[in-house]
## 1
Amino acid sequence: MRLGGRVSALLALVGLAAFAAPAAAQDQARITGVVKGSEGFALSPATVRIEALALSANTRSDGSFVIVVPKDRSLGQRVSITARYVGHAAVTKSIELKPGEVFVDFVLSANPFEIGELVTTGGGTEAEFEKLGVERKSLDSLTIRNAGEKNVVQALAGKLPGVVVQQQSGEVGSSARIQIRGVRTLTQGNTQPLIVIDGVVSNNSTNITGSAVSSTASPNRLADLNPDDIESIEVLSGASSAAVYGSLAGNGVILITTKRGRSGTTNYSFRSNVQVDEAFQGVPTQRRFGVGTGGATPTCVPGGPASCALTAGFFSWGGAVPAGQATFDWSREIFGQGTSFDNTFQVSGGSERTSFFLSAGSTRQQGFVVGDQDFFNRTTIRANASHQMTNALKIGANIGYATSSQNAIGRGNNTNGLLLGALRTPANFNNFEPTAGLRQDAFGVTQSSWRFPNPTSGDVAANRFFDNPVWAIYNNPANQGADRIFGNLNLDWTPFSFLSVKYNLGGDFSAEDRLEARAQQASGTPRGGSLTRWQFNENIIDHQLNATAKWTMSENFAGSFQVGQQLYQRTFRQVFATGQTLITPQPFRLGNVATTPPSDDGEQMVRLEGYFAQAKFDIGKQLYLIGTIRNDGASTFGINNQRAWYPQASMAWNFRQGGAGGLLSYGKLRAAYGQSGQIPGAYQLQNFFLGGGNGNLADFNPGSSLNPAIGAIAGVRLAANRGNPNLRPERNEEISVGTDFAMLNDRVDLALTYYQINSSDVILGLARPATTGFTSVTTNSARIRNRGIEASINVRPIRTKDFSWEVGFNFARNRNRVLQLSADPADSGLRVVGFGPSFAGRSTNATVDTVDVYGQPLRGTISVIRGTDFARCGRGLTGAIPGQAAGVTYESVCAGAANNALIVGANGLPIADGTERTIGDPNADWTGGLRSTFSIRKFTISGFLDIRQGGSIQNMTRASMYQYGTHGDTDGGGDVNNATTPAAIQAARGITRTFGQNGFFTTLPNGQPAPAPVGPGAGTSVVLGEAWFGGNGGIGGPAAQFQEDGSFVRLREVSIAYLWDSRWLQRSIGLSSVEFRAAGRNLWLSTNYTGFDPETNLGGGAVGNTGFDWFVYPVAKSFIFSVALNR
Amino acid sequence: MKASILRFTGLAALTLSAAGCSGFLTGPKLTESPNAATSANGRQILVGVQAAAFLWQQSDIARNMSMMVQHLTGTNNQQLDRGSRYLYTESDVSGFFNQVYSFGGLVSIRAARDSGLAAGDRRLAGIARFYEALMVGTAASLWGDIPYSETLNPQVATPKLDNQVTEIYPRLQAVLDSAIADFAASSSAPLLAEDVVFNGNVDRWRRAAWSLKARYWMHLGEVQGTTAYQNALAATANGINEVPAAGDAGADMQGAGDFRTVHGTTQDVDANVWWQFINSRQDMTAGAPLVNILVARNDTVRLRRYFIPRNVTDPALRWRGDSIGGALRGATVSNPGANSIGQFGTTASRTAAFRQPILTWAETQLIRAEAENRLGVDDLGLGEVNAVRASVRLSPLSAPITLAQVQEEKYVAMYQNIEAFNDYKRNCFPALGTSTTPSGATVLFVGGGSRPSPTAIPRRLFYGFGERQTNPNIPRPNTAGNRVSDGNRNDPNACT
């Protein structure tokens, strides 16, 4: 059915195009020619344009173009004709229009930095590349489109130095997170840059429901933007470039410009994309041993007693799976194949005064979880239009609409979801068998799970402990729907030739609606099913007005002066309602539940009023100075600190430019200084009485919550956090210096940047003794420093008539250091807890630790992983070693031993040390991207390697699978054929190891080589089995043993494209070109990480940290085929 | 010229509109939250105080204290770690320590008290004082020296520790005396709906305050001996005196004068917290010592009210649950061969709305009995013990009664009550085996070093991590003053 729709749409397009093919006229002027690079390689698609007549054409793959000028305009006048091509300097020629053929060829020389082209720099400002005192980071539409991502944030991954993108997982509709030049704030979820679309501040929230560590995937709202509609993306990394956004720009700014029409021929394009997704890889599992404990199989297994429940001995430490019994690898078999279809149709064009761009896109994505329940569908519409009313006044509008719907399967720490249950299921329990494809309906489908294998019809409300994951796919829906309209009205007025006024009034309105439900037979509490409804509304209104006056004193001294104003308002509303115990199995509605616990709602309004002034000086055509000052007031600033100033200054010295040939054809030195801020969150100025749930008893278990409402009697209590009426914005002060070179006849271009960002007044809920009555007070207290290097180099070694080859490499390293959490020396041991997910004592935090537990300097100290390790020498442990003979002390064992030597007890096993320390750092040492493109006539082959070096991951999924005995490492592979007793079966499974030998515990968890173990049992070999993995060797043991290196090299994209643009195509069908493209994404990955993927992240876009794997979905491996029809 | 005027007018209009408007940044929804109140009256706060107190007395700490005295045994997850391996860290208790003082704790209690005093409502002030004594006293019994005299003082950033024996308990006795005076000066009318426990009945509140005084005198028994027992005995004379109906109500301690929590029925919202836990997790079973004692004394009402019997006919196995598999599970049972114990359950009797007894007539009677017995006065507590036995339909004991008999009566009565841990520390009754740990495991404390294994039952809790991090007066874990193997000041003698 889908296919039929696509074919008919194609046919309709082809028919339309044929119908619209122009008829030849005799007296018109036919301007033809070829656009080539200086080495003779045809440039395509280059744009050739006659500005005066508003006519333009794109070149074909052979570089040729045709512009037809109608008879009534071919009157012998002379006009300018300009050819442009990305990365090349534009060339303008003058031609005389006359009836008949006019030939004009262009040779464009390389201009890798696009010198002379205007670059959007935010807030209505723009500047030519050569005048920029900061590095330029940009992506063009082709790069974005060819990434083939549904979510434009993910399309940025690896492409720009210093811009780190992390996707949550390969789940459909999951979020992706951007971070530029390190984390600069301690406010969870506030670490991402400001998104500005067509000059309007835009919403990129990720609204989580329930908890960031469980619940279901939720998209970041930039997923509402069709990547095909984007013309370009400019990234302003930090304060030295983004001061014009003041208090909104603390984490940098991403400027997105959507496509717009140009006067001239009406262009049509239709692009159709088919994509097949698979889960990238599984994790090691064992399939020889089934449910049970001590090598024995309980009676409560499929076929056993009816309604029996395994309340103990439910791990996969039981008997050997009988020969012939089916087994499953639940890390792989729970995933199938996903398919998705993307179609985008775009029309653009215009007359001399009016231009327009229309786009409609549709995405139908089916995820890779088995069954058809995980999907993400999106429809987008965009209309951009502008009209030159008078010679001085131009008005425009720019409107996008997006509607999306999604169903996700529970993730992370969710007993009603997919992987928590699947990866803990014994290999010989068939999750498919009893329930596959069956949705619980009015008749009830009896859910069997491995801990409740033989349900009867009376067991509707019996606890299954973990939902059968296949049953959960079909029966525990998590629907999301979102509608969004966003755009702006703009006005461009030039009252005097030296003065221009720009006005931009933008709106961004989004509404999200969610339903998360658990069917009647779902496990957990409350029993009998439940549902939760959420509604989110986020509205932004952004008013930006600015005026620019240009002046020229002499040829060598010119400049401009600009003033601007921004009024910004963001409102956010949220409504939450929940129901428990479904009356009938369906529908999942609040009217169909027995009890409705208290619902909740809330709203926020934040306003900001900012003014800025910017002065630019162009001196001697080689030195360019820009100075900016911005003043902000915001409703979330303290009453006593309602205004804040942000200065910025930059310098660009073009010490070499335009020199033809030679070693160095272009050279620029640049330096910039600036400040920007981070606006405090809403309502942190006062103390509040709360009526809501009991939030912070810090207990992982249920039974930790009581609302201050007992039946109908409701009350309040004082919030544990004390407000602060003196709050100021967080402030980032950045210096950056750098250089841009073009060398070897523009065959090589190179950009280098060094930066340092000092963040001060960073807001945190500074922990205070609870005995003062409040456990924290909101304070401007922390200082954070980020510094690093960014480099990119592009080389074009071959550029001949038929063949070209380009290689680009980008590199970035950032070092993050929390210099201070509190100025008070009494807070020296302070750390910020809860910066991200935390489980069973493993938490990710910001700390002021400067070394990790191994004595290595900490590279990043925000979102470090803290936990325990095994006892090692050199860590200040003293006294008797637990469980050892009398007189065996840490001091005696460690005498003369190397630091970090593992202490092994008499039984051959290491000793757990309960001291919580910083055990890992998830921040990468450096990131890089290697891009290569070959063009051979009409074929283009390109590939992109995404590289991350360093950065650890806390693989708690592995820890849990050890405990449950489902992980591959829990089977030593001994012979079970002759083992008849449980003890013998268990022995056959045992893994004989010696701590510190043969690769077992021979490296420290941070990857450094470990010294030889010491202690009474050092060198003793042990047999590891259920006792070990159920205790210190599993999730109950020290966390450090589950630190893993998250480095990877990933073939992010590889593609081959063919451009078919024969003249026959145009004559017969009326299409100018057809592009065929086959691409693969994530086809290859090199990593030592043993989980699904080092890139996934439990918290997704909603939290500020990375590096935590707890039953997170794998990343998708995708094959993409696309066809684009252009006219 | 005309065009120029238009241009200038246009620019002037733009300039004016850009000048902004006053009040754009301040006011309702902007600098004032539309989501939460900034003031509240004492009655509203009292409800929040009660919810916090009820949660505190039934939640994680109560579960763990029940496992320490082996009323219950942890079989899985954190309950196995904490209850059977005593792996109970400063992080685990941090939220509880904080909430003695913040949130629904002392800061809200004082706000309710001050609101009551300001409005001339001494009954409200008295109730708030009772909760202050309950919260701070329970905390002091677990942590020993805690901040009290300098708490909630804006001038003191880091409150000091007060001496548990010489400062805190005397202060709490004075607070309770003030509460009693408040109640004496008030009347029970009109009803007070926000007081969900006694509905404003000052007579019941006064008696509860006397019972709490008696409990706290008993806490000083080890260090003050006779004085403490005499004071306790005297206090019980005015304590809770309403006897529950014999049978189920007796076993559940549901007397009208008993200080019991009040609940709705919704998980994670207002239901009984023990029920919330067991409704969601199956990580605990009955403790063998308790089951063994109850079976031995044929205490069938309590057995039935405390636990779910197995569906087996053999009476010896009826109260014994599923095998929980080997020494790994850390269970300490008197009959290790059977290695099976009763299923802990609340579905039988202790359901969602069950009013958890916190301070009761039965406890008051048994405090009296212990004091009489230790002082050697009256009938050595026989009458009180037999009164409690009658409430659960057990036959009376005959004279002379031993201290152990009194202690056994209290051990079985104080099921699921944090106070059972204080009784154990004082009485060392019953003789409890210590934990066994899985081979290779070390009992360890996050943030606090490690401790030998197998190990003795902890005698106190670590201070909360949050307080230790921010208040330099709190010793580091595992240093003198913050070792769980050390007794608090009121507990100089370890149980062996």
## 2
Amino acid sequence: MGFLDNSGDIILDVVLTDLGRQLLAKGDGSFNVAKFALGDDEIDYALYDNTNASGSSYYDLQILQTPVLEAFTDNAASMKNKLLTIENQNLLFLPVTKLNQAIATTKLHPSGAFFVAVDRNTEDNSNNSLTSSVAFDSEGLLRQGFILGESLGAGRESSNYIRVDQGLDTTQVSPRQNLDPDLIETEYMIQIDNRLGSIVSRDGVIRAVPDSIDDDNIAYYSFSQGTDQQFVFVNTSTENSVNEVIAGPRGTILEFSIGASLELNTSTYLFSQLGSTTQLPNQTSGNTTTTKFIDSIVKVTGMTTGYSIDVPVRFVKI
Amino acid sequence: MASTFKDIKPSDRVSTRTLLHEAIPITGTIVSGTYGTFPNEDNIKNFSHGMFQSVYDYPYLSSSANHIFDITCGYSSDSPLFDASYTQNSKKRNIYNQMAQVCVGYDITGSVLRFDEDGDILAGGAKIKEGYFLNFTRLLVKDEIKKGTVSLTVGVTASYSAPMGETVTITDAGGVNDYRVNSPVGEYGVLYASGSSVDSSVTSSTYNAAPCGLVYYQAGVMVLSASLFKDITDGGILTDANGTSEMNTSGESIVAALTGSEISGNADNLRHRIQNIQFNNTVELNSTIYFCRANHNEFNYSSNPTYLSSSQIRVKQISSDEPISYITTVGLYSENNELLAVGKLSEPLKKTPANEFTIRARLDY
């Protein structure tokens, strides 16, 4: 997309998204604009210079000169960062959502992503007298950052999972302080490519049902405190410990895991279309297995504050 | 409670209808002579069925070529030209009947009506029994030709070799107010030819020009009477001093050409004499406008990751400082939080508790 002409009057370039066009084409009344949100996707607030010696008029000079791109028609590519309405105009701190990597079972793989083994053969094939599987090491321990994408359900409690913590990540406010109730995330939305995987509870017992799947195969899941107790709960810890990644007052915790899609589980088609191959250590010490992989992103958004993080995920299959 | 969405109330939504116009100039150089040697230019497409000829704005084998209009011709079965011995006689009659039944319609017995010179079908009067049909594509016409904007310049010199020595200007004079509505395909106006070569005995006192055809605004069809190229003595509108135009290299009149040449040859003859075609089109835009109102105490914070540094708001030094955000994007959502439309501002808008914005997002259909 090009930049919009910003030399004259302020103009607004509005387009229907691909999803909007799809709903409009259905003709069943599902295209109904009910609300709006404002975003600031291009803005880098680090450019705000409140120490500029020339005065306050210069604090945001660079921000106001930011060129703005034309609108994207992909509904998943726009409105990444929304503006917030909060009654209290005197807040100095706002909560963030943060990937918790302080716990051994919630750490990313050393490569910088969660690895989802999409079938049993990739998870552990030692019961077939093979050692080419990649999720477990030579001592039979689950490798850091590996999620078992097929072996869901009971007996999986010790498996790795994804944990997102919310709160004020600052040392200037004690974690013993309560987080303003207005700023506590009570609902999260998770977006994942539905062709690749689905969201399950951390123990794999509960398979969540997506609220919707858009035209780009992005599945939208929502989880609420109270309703989805296996996924969202209050962080009651008020002390700084090795398991906490939020330094200040804490809100809620979101925990989930990923199940592999049937397509990835049973076929290599998408790996050929979207992925590549790499060498991963297998269950024989010092040996590797050529492994197919697809890199993707799971987006977690707090529905109260709009704060979001992208969790990198690699789906692997030997 | 913090929120990122604001409901759009019924009072924040309004539907409007706007008419947009574009000027469509078609120069004679596109119609003939630019993309090859007349009459075999690369932007002119003839078909094996021989019923019409298509004009493109670029060699038609190119993917970037646009089809702009078609030329065909024909005559009524009660025309003196209708005779089975003539070239493509039935095809020319069929073309006339097809255009007439679409544009003029039928009488109470189901018979196809003929094109009427002044549009007053009930009064009888002169009929256009032989003529050319210019069918403009939807790409050019869009929803309709704007009334009162049609202008064609056509060479009428008697000599074939220098066709533009004498020209007539054909317009839908008075089309803005003086148009007809008794056609099955919408509104139409009468085309009038003016110029020194038009005989004053056939000019309308109202427009000081001679009726020579019809323009159907919504259908994008122009009908040009064969009388345009005939002098008074031959039953046309040109002065005898100007004489009847020679339509082809053989020096044939339009009567001889219509009877003796194929439709494609007659289309070539007309292209040879088109100097310019111009009109304005009209697009009817139905719009819904959503007024997105950001009040003073709304949208002053951001979820942008760069908004915070160690959870502290970058644009504040102390808590009593005003929160500031910058608006670049407006998203319109469904009840289920599905992003239906997105709008981008050409420059960031600074939002603080000291200001309010109403952003007007218009969706056109």
